[in-house]
Amino acid sequence: MKTRAAIAFEAKKPLEIVELDLEGPKDGEVLVEIMATGICHTDAYTLDGLDSEGLFPSVLGHEGAGIVREVGKGVTSVKPGDHVIPLYTPECRQCKTCTSQKSNLCTSIRATQGKGVMPDGTSRFSYKGQPVYHYMGCSTFSNFTVLPEIAVAKIREDAPFDKACYIGCGVTTGVGAVINTAKMEPGANIIVFGLGGIGLNVIQGAKLAGANMIVGVDVNNDKKSWGERFGMTHFVNPREIDGDLVAHLVALTEGGADYTFDCTGNTDVMRQALEACHRGWGESIIIGVAEAGKEISTRPFQLVTGRVWKGTAFGGARGRTDVPKIVDWYMDGKIEIDPMITHVLSLEEINKGFDLMHDGKSIRSVVVF
Ligand code: NAD
Ligand code: 022
Ligand code: ZN
């Protein structure tokens, strides 16, 4: 079949909207009509050539929502007509990691997903007879895409696609980091570094889980009102305080935070986030993805005195199990999404979404097909 998609032909070039050829689903795969897709940080990162594993040409996009249109042989968990969210972190429920219940980093299709192909080693997309790579197993910048069955979460049918798509990455990552990774207890004091599409979701997750102080740190003063909108209690702009940021934050939280979250991807901020933790028990969760080759550092004394450094992918969420629950939270009004969707674009306008992100003018841009 044909599908309308935005292709990244090479790094640092705008996406091009073209008609691609798409092969139908093979065994264990499903064809999904994407109804809406969010533009997330790592799509831009790959397009900017900062991801050492970026493949071209490819159909980017990893945050979406849509409807199953066709299923391949052996597919049992979804059927045509089901509403789904694609998962860049799949959940096979059979590999060593899934059965361990200790991590969400399912390994069953990891190798092929990283190479931009389906589990059988081939791509379903092609343009003028040449294969086009899949991206993070999702390729949601296409009106139709093919996904492994284990990489789709079935969701309720009354959830609007143009909001539910954000649950495919940003919402689940931020809220999940608090609930699954930090396992934050009510009454905790937290600090969130970077109040973008991820940090704001950390804030609303912490509010939901009953945090006491929620301190937001951002170099952009426009983010103060954004943070407050979702439950931030204190705002600090590192450029506007006298002296050392860490000392300031430790004083503000009377000894340091119980949990801190890096939502910037900046390795200097990661160090600040660890050192702003409370002596003896504070935990710092790295969410931000740093540029290829960057390293983090601190004095080992920070860890010896009880601070804990952790990281999280997709908020520690097990996609097929946890994503439908987050959709329920949204539909029940426990979490908000609508105000964070600052721009709605057509596929033809997708490059504008990347510009808005680069200029810090959007929280989340969503493309509707
Ligand atoms: P964003 O660009 O919307 O937000 C980043 C924010 O950080 C901005 O408000 C910016 O002003 C602020 N900032 C920049 N430098 C700062 C500094 N030195 N101190 C304080 N604040 C600073 O980005 P986003 O979409 O929220 O994503 C944040 C990070 O999370 C990215 O690195 C992204 O790749 C990563 N991410 C990780 C996962 C995961 O599973 N681990 C999932 C999604 C996104
Ligand atoms: C999503 N991310 C950033 C913005 N939006 C993001 C990027 C990378 C990861 C998670 C979220 C991530 C963390 C750990 C891994 N990845 C490795 C997982 C593993 O090895 O099992 C990651 C993921 C997918 C891909 C690359 C790296 C990919 O499909 N290319 C989950
Ligand atoms: Zn993302």
Could you describe the 3D structure shown?
With 369 residues, the chain is of the alpha/beta class. The chain has 12 helices and 17 strands. The protein has helices spanning 41-47, 96-100, 110-114, 161-164, 170-182, 199-208, 223-229, 245-252, 267-275, 301-304, 319-331, 350-358; strands at 2-7, 16-22, 29-39, 63-71, 83-86, 125-127, 130-132, 144-148, 152-155, 190-193, 214-217, 234-236, 259-262, 283-286, 308-311, 341-345, 364-368. Strands 3, 4, 5, 8, 9, 16 and 17 form a 7-stranded mixed sheet that branches. Helix 7 (223-229) links the parallel strand 11 (214-217) and strand 12 (234-236). The chain is globular. The structure holds nicotinamide-adenine-dinucleotide, ligand 022 and zinc ion (ZN). The site of zinc ion has 6 residues, from helix 1.
Mean pLDDT: 97
Outline the biggest β-sheet: 7 strands, mixed
Per DSSP, the total helix count is: 12
| Basic shape | globular
Detail the poorly predicted runs. Answer: none
State the helicity in percent bands.
25-40%
Structural category: alpha/beta
Number-wise, the strands total 17
Bound molecules: nicotinamide-adenine-dinucleotide, ligand 022, zinc ion
**Roughly how many Å apart are the termini?**
17 Å
**Secondary-structure element sequence?**
EEEHEEHHEEEEHHEHEHEHEHEHEHEHE
Integer-rounded radius of gyration: 20 Å
Strand content: 15-25%
